[in-house]
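Reopening this ticket.

The earlier resolution said the output was attached, but the attachment link was broken on my side. Pasting everything inline this time so it's all in one place.
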Amino acid sequence: MQDWLKEELQGFDAGDQRLNERFELIMRRLSDKPTMSIPAACNSWNETLATYRFFDNASVSPEQILSPHREATVRRIAQHPVVVVAQDTTTLNLTKPSDQMKGTGPLSDEHNHGMFNHVGLAISTDGVALGVVEAEYWARDWETFFSNKQLTKSEKAIKRRETPFLEKESARWLRGYQAGCELAQQNPQTQIVVVSDSEADLLDCIAYAQQSKASASSSADWITRAYQDRCLPKGETHPKLWDACEAAPVRTTIEIEVSENDPESGDKTKRNQSRTARTTQAEVRAITITLPGQPRVEGNIGPQVVNVVYVREIKPPEGEKPVEWLLLTNLPIDSIEEIQLVIDYYVLRWKIELYFRILKVGCGVEKLQFEQLERYQRCLAVYMVVAWRVFYVMMLGRECPEIPCDCVFSPEEWKSVYKVVHRKEPPKTPPPLGEMVVLVAKLGGYLGRKHDGPPGPQTTWIGMQRMKDFALAWLLFQSPPTDESAASNETPRQKTAEAIYV
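Inline output:
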């Protein structure tokens, strides 16, 4: 088994040694060929059937599959003074022309079937994904969906007010923060910062986080992008949140990279505007405000004092609205350095979008064919680890390019790739990781021209898949037979290849 798999699967126990061995083999096959279908990734029809039987086994849960990976992630987190946990939800569209997967629910409408996956991804301050620390799956109920469609807008608002918060879908953001607090308790020497997008702009979550920080030393810090332009308490100079931020003095000016966005949906909210890619200047303001309390079924939520960092583009292109982030946080904002830290931590949130792209496009999880949603979720849990591995290698090559590549790649992997790309014998000393990741990406179509950026996820996952085939060939054909193995007509490398790949 590859060294990284030993680390990620340490402690897995399904209660049956045969299941444990099957799980190891499945992880190896799907990580070797993440872009291929399950039958194509397996070595035989019998192996394919055994893989599907594993995903059909009710005694193995998705949480159980992810558990050893989470424990390995906790160990990686312990090596860093600060770790950001970015949480977000992705929609998995599993609609098929016929024979819909049993257990799926409606998405945006009754014509699209699927489920939702809420993920907490641990990220170092260097931008390296350390692993998945929390995952929650659910599908909407069809009966509830159709009954809600019959309600008027005011009736829906009343129903939302009368529903306890923990029974709402949005409670997943609170559970994501609680998962961050558990990490903080497990790693008291590491500062955990839970970063959430504007969907988490909920007073219930803010109040819980504020209370948690006040009552426990080992709890997570938090940053949430604001979405609601809340009314401020009476007596304030400015009646609305955005007005108060815009009136605050400019603390500093920063340069930000804006990525292109061409939203496919008709969503025209602040968080989903069309924009062109650019490098631009933005003003930064920071204030402390009081958010007014709100009534709830469970009891009233009191006023919440929070810090705010407001970033707004100075001169947007003609016809485009300025990029702006209004960030609510408990982190200090007294100095420019502290304000910059809040911005830096929030920017890391976009790493989870790349992770979802690897999961959905690279691993093709929306194309998987299963009859039952429970089986699909077990398979999805495996691919979540596979997608993390691709992302980890890509970002580690960017952020830590000088470390030796054998900390990530086995000898047969880096040597075979080096020889294929350079058409010459590999050096005795492993090359730097940054150089090696570029070579792997070249197998996936990366050109490496002067104006090209670093390798992206697509060239990385394709290259890693091809690398496995070259590594197998290297093990099988590189070494001449010894006297002892010549009699059995088998080389030492062939024995190694059989142990790893067969």
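Reporter confirms the inline version is readable. The first helix runs from residue 3 to 8. The longest strand covers residues 278-291.
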